[in-house]
Amino acid sequence: MKDTHNFLLKKWKQKELAHFYIMKSPEDISLDAFSFFERWIENFLTSILVEDPIILKTKKQINQIIKNGHPDILFIKPKSKQNKYTWENFNDFFSFLNLKKFELSHRFIFISDIHLISEILCNKLLKSLEEPPSQTTIFFLQTKQIPLLPTISGRAVKIKLSIPQHVKENTSSNSFRRPEESHQYL
Predict the structure, then answer these.
(1) Overall CATH class of domain 4-12+28-185
(2) Structure confidence by residue, pLDDT tens digits, 3-46
(3) Is 49:57 a contact under the CB 8 Å cutoff?
């Protein structure tokens, strides 16, 4: 596959998505990593929603799902960039895992700024990361190049995202037009 997006979309179509991925942001990113991931997630979920056979959606409905959320898609972010995650930040995570799919053929959890998850909380997440419910995929979004616990990283498929050269050449420091990326499997 030429890029991560197509690779993951193909795996989803074949019902072969792994249950846990760690997505590493590009080291040479010219905008903040969170904005990069927001665009990447939007592009990825749009592709999934367009092709999901369970429900029929218009482009307007897809945009609304991306903007307003969906019961089969969970985003977890820290309250602020300076604070570590707390147990309360993950209440929705554990509740989500206990629910059945609502209407999509697959469920997704995106957890940003994973460097803010404490070692104690990481250890409490291990079982859920190793054995989430079927048709559920968890994405850890690693915005800083800080090593994770080996017990966490050893359970995940790790993908290092990078910005293709043609995008770098056409991108100013304040804008990023295309969320497509190349990838490197670690």
Answers:
(1) alpha beta
(2) 788 899 999 999 999 999 999 887 755 556 677 888 888 888 98
(3) yes
CB 186 within 8 A of CB 159: yes
Helix, strand, or coil (residue 158) = strand
pLDDT: is 83 or 149 the higher one?
A: 149
Structural tokens at position 142: 């690693």
Contacts 24+ apart (CB under 8 A), 68-71: 70/102, 70/104, 71/99, 71/102, 71/103
- Which pairing describes strands 73-76 and 107-112: parallel, antiparallel, or unpaired? parallel
Give the whole-angstrom CA distance, residue 165 versus residue 113: 26
Least trusted range by pLDDT, from 67-71, 85-89, 108-112, 143-147: 143-147
Model confidence over 137-153: pLDDT tens digits?
999 998 887 888 888 98
> CA angle, corner 172, sides to 169 and 178, nearest 5?
70
- Nearest in space to 48 (alpha carbons), one of 112, 132, 109, 104: 104
CA distance 169 to 177: 12
Distance CA 178, CA 124 (A): 36
